[in-house]
Prior knowledge:
Blueprint: H1 22-37, H2 49-54, H3 72-75, H4 84-97, H5 101-125, H6 130-142, H7 147-151, H8 156-173, H9 177-190, H10 197-207, H11 216-241, H12 256-259, H13 261-280, H14 299-317, H15 323-336, H16 358-377, H17 385-408, H18 414-424, H19 429-441, H20 449-469, H21 474-486, H22 490-503, H23 509-519, H24 527-544, H25 549-561, H26 565-578, H27 584-595, H28 599-608, H29 610-615, H30 618-627, H31 629-633, H32 637-642
Helix pairs in contact: 1-5, 1-6, 4-9, 5-6, 5-8, 6-16, 6-17, 8-9, 8-10, 8-11, 9-11, 10-11, 10-15, 13-14, 14-15, 15-16, 16-17, 18-19, 19-20, 19-21, 20-21, 21-22, 22-23, 23-24, 23-25, 24-25, 25-26, 25-27, 26-27, 27-28
Amino acid sequence: MSHELPLRPTPAAPDVLGGLSPRLALLGVLALIALVHLPLLGFQFVYDDGWTLVANGFLRAPGDLALLFSPEALARHVPDAFRPGLVVFDLLTYQLLGLSSPLHHALSIALHLGVCAVLARWLRVLGAPLDLALGTAALFGLLALHAEAVAVVSYREDLLAALLGLAAALAASRGRWLGAALLSLGACAMKLSAGAIPALWLLAEGLSPWRPRPPAARLARGALALALGVAAVLVYTVALYGALDPYGADNLRVYSHRVGLGPVLAASLPIHLSYLQQMLVPWGLSPEYTDHGAAFTDPATLLAGAALLALAGYGLACARRRPLVALAILGAFALALPTSNLFPMPNMRADRFMYLPSVPVCLGLVALLLAAGRRLSRHVPEDMWLVARVAPLAAVVVVQGSVRVAAAAVYRDNSHLWGVARERAPDSARAHAALGELVVRNVPADAPREDKALAFARAEAHCRNAERHDPRYELPQLCFARLAAAREDWPAAERRYRTALAVSPDRNAGIFAGLAEVSLDLPATPETTRTDLARRHLAEGLASYPYSPELHATAGRIFHRLGDPEQAQVHYRRSLDLAPERPEALLANIDLLLDLGRPTDATRLLLQEKTAWLAAHPDDRTALVARHRDALRLFEPSMILSADPVGVLAHEP
């Protein structure tokens, strides 16, 4: 006999839902995923959240939205202009949520739950059994490798691309070609990694693990509809940038631009094998990985290449007899192509890159675990059949979810994040530079001289390590520049800012602001020269970064010092418009108005922008009110007291 019969009958499809309706069961899975993610509501903004959300003045200028689809978006350095859908989404969410980090994290959790729900629904439309669809959604929802994509607000581009991309695949499977094309367009407008969705859809429908294969004409129509959305975004990118590479051929942040494509591709083979290991066994997760090259003759590259080639070959061999295995393997390869370093990327490796490619991996792993559960159920008493069937899957989901909670905790704030990043990637220039700047920024202005000297020495060690690991990177130079400015070593600060500007391809608003400010304090330099330098750096910076609240606030302070109050007020006002939650420009503007003898206007502004006032550090509020106590008392002191929670005005000098 070719098959040994079990000693006792096993039901072909026991009720794994315990009588629950499929919809209610899916809601239960989503509720479990949401519960695991609840701690994220207490997290702060980290990583690129400051650049894309907190200090992105373009989000506060909805009237300028039309320029996003013109070359002006590049000229004005609108963040993420090559992802127009994401910029529009961020603009809308900012108008609705402001800068409430709990609300933005809640939105990320909701998007992740949406991806899980659409994934389960698409699998059901493809004909997948209910336990397989729900199990895939559960494992995907709690996969430890997804901690970064969900915990960092600015990485919701991956969530949006996956949500819209899977929704496009669902629409195509239902024969809704227009909806599929529009959803595919939306997915790629969030992030071009969704450009591999047509390949995944073709594999899922063509291999057809659970139902008869659709006619070739239907497959062609679906693939064409999905490809139209991808093509539209590619045309937009070429029209805007003149090439498919939005980063530019001279961008030193792209490692392949430094060492060539070959060494980067060689290093990518072990990286992608490590991704697979991290999905199956959640070990080695990190918020930071260091870019590096390799040779195709290296043992690690040869072994990884052989393993991946064998896996791909096995997937192809399973296409007829084991289509589900082929879908899991070949689908993962297809979805990983956009982030395989074949195309220029500023980071060679990041956990978030595997958010979408993990979909078919989770499908294959859940199918394997359910098969193991069915085998196990043959060897247990009848009343334990259900437990045995779900036990392997439940164990893996619990392990992944537990590691997920620990992995997500890394992203609760920048200090903790970069501390862990340095530990896990000790040769990361970015981690050392970020830690150095955090040390400088967190030194209190009134700290004792010895404490300041000790803190600055720690920061300098980080800056030196950062420069040693990558001397061609702008962040180590910025670390040194801001440290020198804190030490009031203006020539060193000016020199480091210039070095940073020479190697930095973009995001230079802070560099121009720093150059303009330190130029006014250069020793042994004529006053007219210093003034001209400051004005020139401001003009150049504001022309390139008109949506930078930091640059406008710096311009206000400089014109204040130069005795030009009208220009100072213009820039303070613009800075407040571009970042109404940030207090620096408000405090400086109030200071200017009081210096001009206009306490009425100062008080009115303070009460009008009370949110920014309350966001300021208590020491800054205290210093400002203490300095101008008499002037502020002349105008409605009770109103000032209401905006002065530290109670400075309640006490006589």
